[in-house]
Amino acid sequence: MLLATCSSIASAEGWQLHGFGDISVKNDYVTPRGLVVTTEGVTVQVLNGLVAVSPGGVAFHAGTWVDINPGYSRADGNITAVNEFDYFFGVDFDIVPKLNVGVEYSEFISGQPSVAFKNEHNIEFHAKYKDSADKGYTINPYAKLFWAAWGKSSTVVLGKAGDTFDVEIGMVPTLKTGGITLSAPTWITVGPETYWGTGPNKDGNLGVFSTGLKVATPLPFAAGAGANIYAFAQYYNLINDALLTSKGILNSGANNRDHVVFGAGIGFGF
Questions:
Q1: Residue 160: which of 176, 147, 175, 143 has the closest Cα?
Q2: Is 7 part of any domain?
Q3: Quick check: 4 pLDDT over 80?
Q4: Where are the beta strands (DSSP E) in the chain?
Q5: d(CA 160, CA 151)
Q6: In a domain, 8, yes or no
């Protein structure tokens, strides 16, 4: 999942406590793994949580995320605007300067379990390289292993339910100029073909390719806190046919392999 945290640098005095949050409005909801969940109405997503940083720089975080879909499609079997609620907690730290590793547990909970997915329990591991902060342009490469550990539903509809995984390989090229920050989140997912589809729905080991552009600028805020507003567009190419089939199942037969999500939001932290 997308997690924006505050600084993980600990002070000499002891533990630090930070908070983070994000509210965004989008045209559609597409997961990082390429599942096109909604295309009708709008999508409102709310993230919030806390980070506790030890004197040694180990950061423990926990939070919640919710997806709300005003204008949801009844024709596709939806019965409420509350589409999904997730909670998560994890830990991360720098194993060497600039290289951060971590692990996070999350549970995906449907807002309409009688017609949608059953609870999905996941564990995600990451490694992220952080370029020098004093450089105007950074690449920020990373890798994530998303383990759909257990559950009675697939996280991409047609794949194996539990005990499967995919790997996200990406980067977030970022340019800071004046009061504007430009970033281009880009990634591709790979994994066992049964992650995306089983039986006749198997279609290789590639999942989705995505790239986009985000423009952010800071907002004046109270001392000790920060905020930014942003707008973005993110392109998805559904490489795996099982993802394309799942898109049609959830969205009245939609079958375009290319999909663009655009929106705006505000992020904040203290």
A1: 147
A2: no
A3: no
A4: 16-26, 29-30, 36-38, 43-53, 59-68, 82-96, 99-110, 120-129, 137-138, 141-151, 164-171, 174-177, 180-183, 186-190, 206-219, 226-238, 258-269
A5: 10
A6: no
- Residue 151, by phi and psi: left (phi above 0), alpha (psi -120 to 50) or beta? left
Instruction: Determine, yes or no, domain membership for 219.
Output: yes
What does the alpha-carbon distance between residue 35 and residue 45 come to, in Å, rounded to a whole number?
Answer: 16
The residue segments making up the domain with residue 47 are 16-269
Note whether residue 9 is domain-resident. Answer: no
- How many angstroms separate the CA atoms of 210 and 199, rounded? 26
Alpha carbon distance 247, 37 (integer Å): 7
Please say if the pLDDT value at position 137 is more than 90: yes
* 80-119 tens-digit pLDDT: 999 999 999 999 999 999 999 999 999 999 999 888 999 9
Phi, psi of 73 (to 5 degrees): -90, 110
Report the alpha-carbon distance of residue 127 to residue 263 in Å, rounded.
27
CATH of the domain at 211: 2.40.160.40
Domains of the chain: total: 1
Residue written as token pair 């600990």: 10
pLDDT of 12: 43
At 154-189, the pLDDT tens digits run 999 999 999 999 999 999 999 999 899 999 999 999
Q: What pLDDT score was predicted for residue 13? A: 64
